[in-house]
Design goal:
There is one protein chain. The chain is mainly α and about 220 residues long. The chain has one domain. About 65% of the residues lie in helices and about 5% in strands. A hairpin with a 2-residue loop joins strand 2 and strand 3 (about 100). Helix 5 (about 125-150) packs antiparallel against helix 6. It is globular, with a radius of gyration of 17 Å. The termini are far apart. The model has no long low-confidence stretch (mean pLDDT about 95).
């Protein structure tokens, strides 16, 4: 059995995203229907390099994926959380009009952002660790979401009413991102996953690149 090294996994992630960016930019947008597969491969590759796989780790994964879906379901159903929007078809199989993979997206962004925050900031004070670190991670997550939102309809991911992205979307994103990151911190999930840090940067550059290609 071949065991991947972190650098090999990072190269695979780069290739996946470069192919997706190039294909979309050249008009092969049908490949966007493979987005759920891309997300799942990215998640599995990244989590395979997590250092401490224990009950807390699985609890974090389960709670973020399940609650990520529930939040989006409530958002689509009520229009009162993020604003009025609905999902397209490129995020795959849906349950009650919400893609099942959407919880995976929340998990990837939370996990990768928190690994990046811990690389950049290593505060000793308990209050800073508990509150500031999750908040910085939430800012990182909202920053990625900002670039996704600009091209979401072109990618057939989701559509905003009147094609206007409401401010409440970003405030809600920050709130829930903070909650997931706070859970990460309180459970003491281990960090230092180089692949997770690389994936955050790769996804950010991917969506910035899509903005350049498509807008």
């Amino acid at each position: 059995m071949i065991k991947l090294k972190p650098n090999h996994a990072i190269i695979i992630l780069i290739i996946l995203h470069v192919v997706g960016l190039s294909a979309t930019g050249m008009g092969y947008e049908f490949l966007l229907s493979l987005t759920p597969l891309n997300l799942l491969i990215s998640l599995l590759l990244t989590l395979s390099f997590h250092r401490e796989i224990d009950f807390r780790f699985w609890m974090y994964i389960g709670l973020v994926i399940i609650n990520g879906y529930i939040i989006e379901w409530a958002g689509v159903t009520t229009g009162a959380i993020f604003g009025s929007y609905f999902y397209g078809n490129n995020l795959g199989l849906k349950l009650d009009d919400v893609p099942l993979v959407i919880g995976v997206n929340w998990l990837i962004l939370s996990y990768c952002s928190m690994n990046l925050v811990h690389l950049l900031f290593q505060p000793k004070h308990h209050l800073v660790q508990t509150w500031v670190i999750p908040a910085i991670g939430a800012i990182f997550m909202v920053f990625v979401d900002y670039w996704i939102e600009q091209v979401c309809s072109r990618l057939d991911f989701w559509y905003w009413k009147g094609q206007v992205i409401p401010l409440e979307n970003y405030t809600a994103w920050f709130f829930f991102a903070f909650a997931f990151n706070f859970l990460f911190q309180k459970l003491g999930i281990s960090t230092g996953n180089r692949v997770a840090i690389a994936l955050y940067i790769i996804q950010l550059l991917f969506f910035i690149g899509l903005n350049v290609w498509l807008l």
